[in-house]
Amino acid sequence: MASPATTRAQNAAPPAKWSEAVQALAGKIANLAGRSRLISLEVKNISSLNAADGAAIRQALEVELTQRRFRLVPATSAEAKVVVTLSEGVSGYIWVAQVGGGAAEQTVILPVSRTEASTKDAASGSLVLEAKLVWQQAGKFLDFAELSAPVGFSSMLVILEPDRLAYYHSTDAVNWQFWQRVPISPANPWPRDLRGSVSGDSGDVSLPSVRCTGALDPAKVQCAPDRGRSTSVKVKIPGHEESESVLLPDRCGEESIVLSTGNGDWTEPDSIQGYLLPGLDQNARVSGAPIQMQGPVISLSCDLKQSGAHAIVHNLKTGNYEAYVVTATCGR
Amino acid sequence: MRRMLSRRRAAVSGAAIILLAALPALSARRPRYGGTLRAEIGAAVSSLDPGGASANPEEAAAKAEIAALIYDHRNPDGTYSDPGPFRVSEWEPGKHLTLAANEDYRGGRPFVDAIEIQMRRAARDRVVDLEVNKTDLAEIPPEQARRAADRGTQVSTSQVDRLVALVFLAGHPAASDARLREAIADSIDRDAIVNFILQKEGEAAGGLLPQWSSGTAFLFATVSDPGRAKELWQQIAPSPKIVLGYDSDDPQEQAIAERIVVNAREAGITLTLRAISPSAAVSNVDAELVRLAMVSPQPQVALTSFLGVLNPLAGVNPDPLPDRASPDQIYESEKAIVRSFSVVPIAWMPQVYGLSARVRDWKVPGPGESWPLADVWLDGSGAAAAQGNP
User: Fold this and answer.
1) Other beta carbons within 10 Å of A105
2) Domain check: are A203 and A281 in the same one?
3) Contact yes or no for B26 and A283 at CB 8 A
4) Would the CB atoms of B3 and A4 count as touching at under 8 Å?
5) Angle at A178 between CA B372 and CA A302, to 5 degrees
6) Full-prediction pTM beyond 0.80?
């Protein structure tokens, strides 16, 4: 869980998550530039990438092109002008390079996946939140559980939808294949604001008036009407009752960590903010920068197994429901 | 160095509810059940039969929205099946419709008890009714959004997802010269159309997909080039007479068409306008203004749908896109159509809705989506907080 502290200078280095895309784009630019060795490079960012990421990508691209024996010069003395635009569409980032200019201009387009959001640039001494996109689909789902497996074996992802548990498996925990499903049939129609949870730790599946047994083993899971009370842990914060809040199992020094969503309704982008709590009877204080999501956070729950939180987000741009694991680390 | 986080699992596993000290207070976000939502539409829906004919596109669109409220599924053949979140309780064709919440809806009973839909309300009347709190929900023209907001109406605007384009009709000899089409395209001042006619509620369109969807719209130029237009027009002799058609029921379309004629005249090009009734078959015009609504936020799906409309009109037949086309392939397909100048994108417009102050959780429908009225709830309606099904 621990990781080395990062300095500003190190932050300027290309983030590892972009290096593959930068290499691919540099390769495409090299193909179009042909024999031209003196090139100018202009990078425009019209996407939601922040300025730091934009600058880091530019720097990484300069390094890549230099390693491919190009010399970067001002546009006035360049044999070929290269304009790179960091753009964004509904499916992810779109990086575009225009090489040449005028009638001879050639264009390459590179799709780059948008899989991570983080607050790594947060001030030191505060919580750093990271949200890792685990799953997305068009249909609504309520929660998910990742069941990891030893290397070489198949990992399992369980998606709790209103009418079924959907099982997916993967060898790399990235590319998931549908495996099988277990139907869930409530005795009465669900409420419109249905909530539910599935725990990878205990194997519990919690829905209003329905209980599933079988420890998430698809061969054994059975869901049946149940009048028992839900035993899930809820965090209630005075003055904050209607937001999604969760107390994480980890601590930052002596302080507890609470994550809480913003104050919008379900029609606007939301954020997740970290708080530090010296004691359960003391006031919580904001710590670090919030993570901005692309839609409302409709559910935020604790994941004991991954020592983080599960966030279900309804992405307003794509219409998809997205599953994130949100983790918090405390910087010094 | 970052510190290791210490575990404290027992602290949360032992209690069902933990009460924490105060965080900054937040407003209500949990839905409540109850109340009647009042909506107004411009169309006069004469039949609720989703398969029945519609007098115009506005009625067809309204009928589809109503069908999505009273049926759960739209089948591939266009028919509807299974009970939806609402059922019809009162119906006066062409005038008024009341829908009641379906208590047994499998997706959960809607939050509101009923929806009253008043039909045949002109755009201006809808804006006024929103101002005087006579209705809760109405679609309003984009150019009236600012005025409505200034007068206190809550305005909900979608991403731009409706394209206005000029289409040169296939088989019309007057428009068969690509230089003529390019000259007219170059003469159009799209920014003026967006700024003055749409009152800045839109974007100039250079491609067939908006920037937020494809990510490549910035590669298409939207600036006018009257000098190039003049140069091209002077190459064509004798100067042909071009007739531009627009929807006679649509004042906004008329304003855009008139602006195009002014721009063309500034480049020395003569265009003649002709109003076309939506129910009449298109004839004796060489070009017409069309409106295209995206059916999906996904660029490939939206472009394919547009081509389904444009191919028969303009005779553009680009190579079909492969399954799961790359952004590069989609861009090349768009470019081929735009560079034929048979279709001239002009402006992207959003959907704009006015809402009363008590409407909550309204999310303006995205491309291909219906009004989310099963998820809307009314604040301050005296309804109880949702604790489950009422």
Assistant:
1) 12
2) yes
3) no
4) no
5) 65
6) no
